[in-house]
Design goal:
Layout (H helix, E strand, L loop, with lengths): L20 E7 L6 H5 L10 E4 L6 E5 L2 E2 L5 H7 L28 H11 L1 E7 L2 H5 L6 H18 L7 E3 L1 E2 L5 H14 L3 E5 L14 H10 L2 E5 L19 H7 L2 H12 L2 H4 L5 E4 L6 H15 L9 H8 E5 L6 H8 L4 E3 L12 H8 L5 H16 L2
Parallel strand pairs: 1-5, 5-6, 7-8, 8-9, 9-10, 10-11, 11-12
Antiparallel strand pairs: 2-3, 3-4
């Protein structure tokens, strides 16, 4: 692939040739015709697809026969596959706009070679197109059909590398009954985790009773829940700043807050009391906020706990039910680990997205060098294994 840097292999800290680190957040780059090929025929005329203007060549992405609110589809496709390009001095204005359409992204042998080069044993893979359409499809039945199509494709694609590559099954929570049915299906396909959009649904907390069947199914099926940011129109801060997507404010202070808030609603509204074995992580929302989050919730709980469904301070839920996916380059990372403990954090490369991190294992080791080796090993390996049940 064009301009793809060759990355150095990470030596195994335990000696020998066995790789142990876990990449807890990466992405597929789905082919644009995936949904047209895999969706239930009853929904094919409404599926996600791309069209181009015959005269201008401008691309438009459709869902339910309506244009998604994307300023520049080709630019978005570039963002989704420009891994390593910012490190070469490029920026959002001159990333390779057409690399995202390459069929090479569906080459899972190449993906495994990436793992080998980086020193990863296993990789969890979230969707890319799914984080684009999820916030704009209103019909629960169509959203469910799109999830089913994607999940079928994803598990087929990794079938020859089931010991290394693990799709996070896309689950729409718009209709809990449909969600549970699909969770039961993907569990039989070998799913270890589900991807849940951090976008609010009908203005309801994730702790609203209507979603309890989903959390009950995740607990009974032993599926980890990854709350991942998505693009949507009612993003946090949208009342303050209508930023053309993709923009600095939108990515830096808006949608990154959504997973944190979604998780907080689960704590405040008693989800972890009702489902004490549920495992939930925020994905692609960094770690620096965790210290303030624990302190603020614990402080307010001390005299306002009766206004919530919490039965214990937030740090107890954190140490029992919650994991955090970290950016390998976060300078605050070691300090948050020192404050909150070393058992609830893991790293993700975000490969192949532009904002992803080249040499993620190496960079995480550099950032965490002040911590004991046992703590670093937990963060690079065993914490993700505990969360994803590897």
């Amino acid at each position: 692939m064009a301009r793809r840097p060759r990355l150095r292999a990470e030596p195994n800290p335990r000696g020998g040739s066995t790789m142990r680190a876990i990449d807890g957040d990466s992405h597929f780059m789905e082919p644009m015709d995936l949904f047209e090929r895999y969706i239930d025929p009853a929904f094919r005329d409404r599926t996600v697809k791309m069209i181009r203007d015959a005269e201008t060549g401008k691309a438009t992405m459709l869902a339910d026969n309506k244009p998604l609110k994307l300023r520049d589809v080709d630019q978005i496709m570039g963002l989704l596959t420009a891994y390593g390009e910012k490190e070469q001095g490029l920026n959002i204005g001159n990333f390779d706009r057409y690399l995202g359409y390459s069929k090479q992204w569906q080459d899972m042998d190449a993906r495994v070679r990436f793992l080998d080069e980086e020193g990863f044993d296993k990789q969890v893979m979230y969707p890319s197109l799914g984080i684009v359409w999820e916030g704009e499809v209103e019909d629960p039945a169509l959203a469910d059909a799109l999830c089913r199509a994607y999940n079928t494709w994803a598990f087929e694609l990794v079938s020859s590398h089931k010991d290394r590559l693990f799709p996070a099954a896309h689950i729409s929570i718009r209709d809990p009954q449909m969600a549970v049915r699909e969770m039961e299906r993907v569990a039989k396909l070998g799913a270890r985790s589900i991807f849940v959009s951090s976008a609010p649904v009908r203005g309801h907390s994730f702790g609203h009773p209507e979603f309890d069947p989903i959390w009950a199914a995740a607990q009974s099926l032993d599926l980890a829940v990854g709350i991942h940011l998505v693009s949507h129109r009612n993003y946090t801060g949208s009342a303050w700043y209508k930023d053309p997507k993709p923009g600095l404010m939108y990515f830096t202070m808006s949608i990154i807050q959504d997973p944190r808030i979604a998780l907080t609603t689960m704590v405040v509204d008693g989800v972890f009391e009702r489902f004490p074995e549920l495992r939930v992580a925020t994905v692609e929302a960094m770690v620096g906020w965790v210290g303030e989050w624990i302190e603020r919730l614990n402080y307010r709980y001390s005299y306002m706990g009766h206004t919530s469904q919490m039965k214990r301070p937030a740090d107890e839920y954190f140490h029992r039910n919650i994991w955090i996916s970290a950016d390998p380059e976060e300078r605050m990372f070691p300090y948050i680990v020192q404050f909150a403990g070393d058992e609830r954090f893991f790293i993700g490369s975000d490969y192949p997205h532009a904002e992803g991190f080249v040499r993620p294992v190496e960079k995480a080791r550099q950032q965490l060098a002040s911590l004991p080796k046992a703590s670093v090993d937990k963060i690079l390996e065993s914490n993700a294994r505990d969360f994803y049940r590897f």
